[in-house]
Amino acid sequence: MKVRHLIHLHWRSGFGITPSSLKSAKFLSKQNNVNSIFDISKKIEPIQLDLSEFDQFLKTPYKKYKNIHGAEAATKLRQKSQRKVRELNFEWLKKIASSDCIFRQKMTLFWANVFVCRDNHIFHIIQFNNTLRKHALGDFGAFVKAVARTPSMLKYLNNNRNVKLKPNENFARELLELFTLGLGNYSEHDIKEAARAFTGWNFKANGDFIIRTNKHDENSKTFLGVSGNLGGDEVIDIILKQRQCAEFICKKIYTYFVNPSIDTSHLNELTDLFYKDYNIEKLMRHIFMSDWFYDENNIGAKIKSPVELMVGIQKIVPSVFKKQRQVSYLQKMMGQILLYPVNVAGWKGDRYWIDSNSLMFRLKLPSVLLNNANISLMPKGEFEDDFSDFYNQKSQQFKVSDQARAYFETHYANISKEELKAILVLPKLDQDTDEMLNIYQHQNAYQYCIQLMSIPEYQLC
C-alpha cells in the first residue's frame, strides 16, 4: 500500500500510526492491512473499575436507600457515584489511547455519539459504555435492542416512566429521529404507537432488564403500516425493514469515517450492502477495501475531534495522560467531555469543533502537553456542574514527563523530518506554513514534532 493511504486508513480506523508500525505495514497488501485491523479488534475489552464501595447503591433503589439511611447519606453516595463517573471518563480515554483493539475503540467512540446517553449512576453508565463496546462491530438490530434495554438509556429518555395508562414518548421519538430513521420518515402517530409498544420496559435495582407486564399495553397497535400486539422488539424489527434505516446509519458512518461531504453513489452502495443483513463489520470492511475510500478528496478531509486530537498526540508521544483533573480540563476546553454529551443529539462534529477560542487552544495543545507551556483561555461552552471544580481557574500548568522526551528520542532517532512530516500531516501544506516549517528545520526532532503538531493542517485527518 502507498504510505499516504496507510496513514489515512489508520486515522479513520484509529488515531494515527507510529513510524514503527508504518514501516512493517507498508509491505503488506491492502487486504492484509485491513484484515489485521479487524483481527486485532475482535477482542472485547470491557472497562472495569473497582465499584465495591457502591454495593448498596447497586442493590437498593435510590429512594429506598434514602429512606433507610437518610437524605445526607444518600446525597453523599450519589456524589461518590458522580466522582466515579469522572474516573470512568479518564479510564475510557486511557483505554482509547492504549488498547491494541484500536478499531473497536474508534467504533465505540462513534456509537457513543449515535446512541447518545448520559447518566451519573456509575454501575449503569459503565454497563452502557461496555454495551457499546460489545456490539460496536456486530449486528445492528441486536445492538439497538441491547441499548434500549440498558438502565442508563431507559432513564435518560424516560422509558422507565412509560406505562400503558400514560405513555411517555421520549424514547420512541428519539429512537426514530436520532437512532434509526431520521426526521421525515415517520409520523406523529408512529411515535405514539411505538411508545405504547415500549410501555413497561424497566430495570431492577441491580440493573437487570425487566418488562413490567402490568404496565405494558397489550392492545393492538399500528406502526409504520404494520398492525398487531406489537412490543418494543417488534417495533425495532419493523424499523430495520425500512431501507431508510440502513441509509440513515450509513450517512452517519460515511460522514465520520470517510468525508463530511457525502458522495451519493457511494452512500447508495453502502446502503444496499448494509440493508441486506445490518452487519456492521461487513460494512466497515467494505469501506476500507473500496478504492474510492482512498481518493485524494477523502484524505485529510475531516477536522479531528478533541479526543482524536489528544489521542493522536498520545500515540506519537506516550505518557501524556497523567492526571484525571487535567485531562478533564482539556476535554472541557475543547468541547468534548466523554460521557457528558451536550444534548440527546450529541456533538455535531467537524466544523463545529472549531471556533476562534478553541482553535487557539488546539494549536497550542502540543506545546502544552509536550513542552511545559501554559494554558490561559476560557473553556468552551457552559460549565458542567459535575466538572465545575476543574475549570474554576483560567490557567493550567502541565508538566511534561521526562519519559515522553526520552521515548521520542529513542523511538524516532532514525526518522527523518520529512518522514515525520508525512506521518503527522495529511493535507497539502499552505505555502506560508511550509515556509515556516523550513525555518524550524534546524531544531531537534522533538521540537520539530511539536511544531508539526501546532500547525493548522494538523487539525485535519
Return the domain count: 3
Question: What is the residue-mean pLDDT, rounded to a whole number?
Answer: 91
* Largest sheet properties: 2 strands, antiparallel
Calculate Rg over CA atoms: 23 Å
Give me the number of helical elements. 23
Helix and strand content put the structural class at mainly alpha
Structure description:
By secondary structure, this protein is mostly helical. 55% of the residues lie in helices and 4% in strands. It contains 23 helices and six strands. It has helices at 3-13, 19-25, 30-40, 55-59, 62-69, 71-98, 102-112, 122-135, 140-149, 151-156, 170-180, 188-197, 232-240, 243-257, 264-277, 280-289, 306-316, 324-334, 356-370, 402-411, 417-424, 431-439, 445-453, and strands spanning 201-203, 209-211, 221-223, 226-228, 374-376, 395-397. The strands form three sheets. A two-stranded antiparallel ribbon has the order 1-2. β3 and β4 form a beta hairpin. α8 (122-135) runs antiparallel to α9 (140-149), α11 crosses α12 and α14 packs across α15 (264-277). The two termini are 18 Å apart.
Properties at a glance:
single chain; 461 residues; mainly alpha; 3 domains; two-stranded antiparallel sheet; 23 helices; 4% strand
In terms of topology, how is this protein built?
Blueprint: H1 3-13, H2 19-25, H3 30-40, H4 55-59, H5 62-69, H6 71-98, H7 102-112, H8 122-135, H9 140-149, H10 151-156, H11 170-180, H12 188-197, E1 201-203, E2 209-211, E3 221-223, E4 226-228, H13 232-240, H14 243-257, H15 264-277, H16 280-289, H17 306-316, H18 324-334, H19 356-370, E5 374-376, E6 395-397, H20 402-411, H21 417-424, H22 431-439, H23 445-453
Antiparallel strand pairs: 1-2, 3-4, 5-6
Helix pairs in contact: 3-16, 5-6, 6-8, 6-17, 8-9, 11-12, 14-15, 21-23
